[in-house]
Amino acid sequence: MCGIVGYVGPREAQPILLEGLRRLEYRGYDSAGAAIAQDGVLHVRKTVGKLARLAESLQADPLRGHTGIGHTRWATHGSPTETNAHPHQDTNGHISVVHNGIIENYVFLRAELQAEGAVFRSETDTEVLPHLLRRYYTGDLLAAVRQALEQIEGSYAFAALAAEHPEQIVFARKGSPLVLGLGQQENFLASDTNALLPFTRRVIYLEDGHHGLLTADTCQIYDAGGTPVAAAPSEVQQSAAAAEKDGHAHFMLKEIHQQPEVLRHLLLSYAPEHGLAQTHTAGTSIQFPGLGVLEQRLTEIHRIVIVACGTAWHAGLVAKYLLEPWARLPVSVELASEFRYAEPCLDARTLVIAVSQSGETADTLEAVRIARKFLAPVLGVVNVPASSIARAADGLIYLHAGPEIGVASTKAYTAQVTALTLLALHLAQRRGTLPQELMAERLEALRQVPGQMQEILQWSPKLDALAGLPAYKNASHAMFLGRGCNYPSALEGALKLKEISYIHAEGYAAGEMKHGPIALVTEELPVFCIAVQGSVYAKTLSNIQEIRARNGRVLALATEGDTQIAASCHDVFYLPPCPEPFSPLLAALPLQLLAYYIALELGRDVDQPRNLAKSVTVE
Ligand code: G6P
């Protein structure tokens, strides 16, 4: 949700800012801008639309200089116009700011600053920052930042530049991520490490309250109280290429195809092959080294609350269907954006699991903070190391999925479901609620899933052809149905389709269809139905008949070897046979691919769908 980047050093700043922004564009892409200091002047360029527009403008007419800040925006306050794009300037254009987050008391501050003579040009909350800095600036921008921080409320990661001091960038963070990158006689900052990888691997993750100053060869960090912080840099392991498309047409397609490999890696990390034999004996096959102190508390817990947003919430819903029967613990799955404003019943024996790809989603992070206030143990299931949720949790399960750049989550979803499946087995083992033989059987079946995913991916052309049928690609609405652990699959399938194709889609528990959604069924309405073999197969088949009886068009995901289903559906895509609890992992792939190919048919921007952003760091 907005990406910021900064550079100070001997090189030309422009190409570095552009490359950093390119790697942050998944965070927002409705406008972009940069400010570069040279000869006592701040040169600013802003364009509406994708970063490519800014790049074109800068190539045609470059901004020269060695210190600069850049921004890619996801609009919160003020529509995506050039005036509302960052960087924002004070009245006389001597101070420039890029910001990610929301300044909540901006209306009050704006009125105050306007009364003092500040000239506001945009409708944004951010613009109060350069004017506030100007109010306090007497030649020391860092001192002005300190005073401004006392006035602002909300969440922010910002970087500021003063025309008079082209050798420094000042920064502050509270509630939105900010990472410093340390180079040789040059320094960087960015919203995440992806933007820094082409330039340096030595990074410092800033904490809330941290603020400071970067020059080419110094890096000063202070905590909220103004005390210097001696932060040790960490070395980022991830390769710069991990954030490239690797020959795929889109990041989303690359990430869909990475799923078998991601799951193999997860299984290898937390349930290595040799553990199978141990399952029968010592029962130690699944291990989560990141659980730390939580490991000891697992046997004390009497309840689990999963908090998450979007796709991660769907992964949590799948997990409920496994955790309850296997570990015999009551599980509630809460939307973090609702949970944080409710009055949750939590205690020290309630395990709160925060599921988040980015580890930065503002609502999920706040849910974690609330859980901690109740002294509930918090487990983070996250993909991004050193993210805010990773740092706030008591224990961690990393997804090891590599950077997910496509805005629509794919590999992170199946990684989340797999990690939570392993956790369910681990808890069952610790609590003695699942016989060892069954546990070994489950684990063995789970190990087959990556190979089965690969089989499904080989059938992509069939899904491509289905997506090309007018009945699907030209639909205005679509319904997704599933039962049991595939009810969340239906929700996720619908979310994928609406996110990237803009076709209105809803997911329902198939048994609920007759309580309302069936009124929508006509021959114009495609119904995507997950009807795999298992405990609810017969019931789901009945639901399909009910749709067919009303002329609905059904595309079913069924299990290979099913000889009945084809007669009741227009189209069937067959999945390899697997135990029902793992079928959501397999069902996810054709649902993702259908959404992908339909979106392509419609000429949509698959990786950067309109209005969305990958990392939602505002409430
Ligand atoms: C945004 C993304 C979704 C993601 C959700 C939660 O809406 O577009 O793909 O599922 O945020 O993000 P998180 O990083 O917490 O998993």
Explain this structure:
The chain has 619 residues and is of the alpha/beta class. The chain has three domains: 3-243, Aminohydrolase, N-terminal nucleophile (Ntn) domain (Glutamine Phosphoribosylpyrophosphate, subunit 1, domain 1), CATH 3.60.20; 251-455, Rossmann fold (3-Layer(aba) Sandwich); 460-601, Glucose-6-phosphate isomerase like protein, domain 1 (Rossmann fold, 3-Layer(aba) Sandwich). Helix content is 36%, strand content 21%. The protein has 20 helices and 24 strands. Strands 3-2-4-1-10-9-11-14 form an eight-stranded antiparallel beta sheet, with helices on one face. Strand 15 (303-308), helix 10 and strand 16 (331-335) form a beta-alpha-beta unit. Helix 1 (13-24) runs antiparallel to helix 2 (51-60). The longest helix has 23 residues, at 436-458. The protein is globular and about 80 Å long. The chain starts with a strand and ends in an 18-residue tail after the last helix.
Strand and helix map with partners:
Elements: E1 3-8, H1 13-24, E2 31-38, E3 41-48, H2 51-60, E4 67-73, E5 88-89, E6 95-103, H3 106-115, H4 128-136, H5 141-151, E7 154-162, E8 169-174, E9 179-182, E10 187-190, E11 202-205, E12 211-214, E13 219-222, E14 234-235, H6 251-257, H7 259-270, H8 275-280, H9 294-297, E15 303-308, H10 310-327, E16 331-335, H11 336-339, E17 350-356, H12 362-373, E18 378-382, H13 388-392, E19 395-398, H14 411-431, H15 436-458, H16 460-467, H17 470-473, E20 477-482, H18 487-501, E21 504-509, E22 526-530, H19 537-548, E23 553-559, E24 571-575, H20 583-601
Parallel strand pairs: 15-16, 15-17, 17-18, 18-19, 20-21, 20-22, 22-23, 23-24
Antiparallel strand pairs: 1-4, 1-10, 2-3, 2-4, 5-6, 6-7, 7-8, 8-12, 9-10, 9-11, 11-14, 12-13
Helix pairs in contact: 1-2, 3-4, 4-5, 7-14, 7-15, 10-14, 10-18, 14-15, 15-20, 16-20, 18-20
Bound molecules: 6-O-phosphono-alpha-D-glucopyranose.
6-O-phosphono-alpha-D-glucopyranose (G6P) is lined by residues 309-312, 356-358, 361, 364, 407-409, 612, 614-616.
